[in-house]
């Protein structure tokens, strides 16, 4: 029996033991609890976050353009007086 066969056999036996042990149930329960906990936190996906960041950047650019336009109009108004 070579070492690869030995280790593969050992790994399969360990995997079988884990599958049949309470550890697998604990893992499933922890995953379920974490999923429920994250669902309650009202989190957003990375894609949604990136989209909102783009919307915010566009809005910020428009706001800066409007502020510049208002400053220009105010300067014209005071120059005409």
UniProtKB/TrEMBL annotation:
Cellular-component GO terms for this entry:
cytoplasm
Q: Which UniProt keywords apply?
A: Cytoplasm, Ubiquinone biosynthesis
- Example of a GO biological process term: ubiquinone biosynthetic process
> Where does this protein reside within or beyond the cell?
Cytoplasm
What InterPro entries does the database record attribute to this sequence?
UbiK
**Where is this protein primarily located?**
cytoplasm
One Pfam family name is: BMFP
Give the pathway listed in the UniProt entry for this protein: Cofactor biosynthesis; ubiquinone biosynthesis
Question: Superkingdom of the source?
Answer: Bacteria
What PANTHER family would the database entry show? UBIQUINONE BIOSYNTHESIS ACCESSORY FACTOR UBIK
* Function (record text): Required for efficient ubiquinone (coenzyme Q) biosynthesis. UbiK is probably an accessory factor of Ubi enzymes and facilitates ubiquinone biosynthesis by acting as an assembly factor, a targeting factor, or both.
What does the similarity note say? Belongs to the UbiK family.
Q: What is this protein called?
A: Ubiquinone biosynthesis accessory factor UbiK
Organism (species): Rugamonas fusca
Q: What is the lineage of its organism?
A: Bacteria, Pseudomonadati, Pseudomonadota, Betaproteobacteria, Burkholderiales
């Amino acid at each position: 029996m070579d070492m690869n066969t030995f280790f593969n056999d050992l790994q399969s036996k360990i995997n079988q033991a884990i599958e049949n042990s309470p550890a697998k149930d604990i893992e499933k329960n922890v995953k379920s609890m974490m999923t429920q906990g994250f669902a309650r936190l009202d989190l957003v996906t990375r894609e949604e976050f990136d989209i909102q960041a783009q919307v915010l950047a566009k809005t910020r650019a428009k706001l800066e353009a409007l502020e510049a336009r208002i400053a220009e109009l105010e300067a014209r108004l005071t120059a005409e007086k």
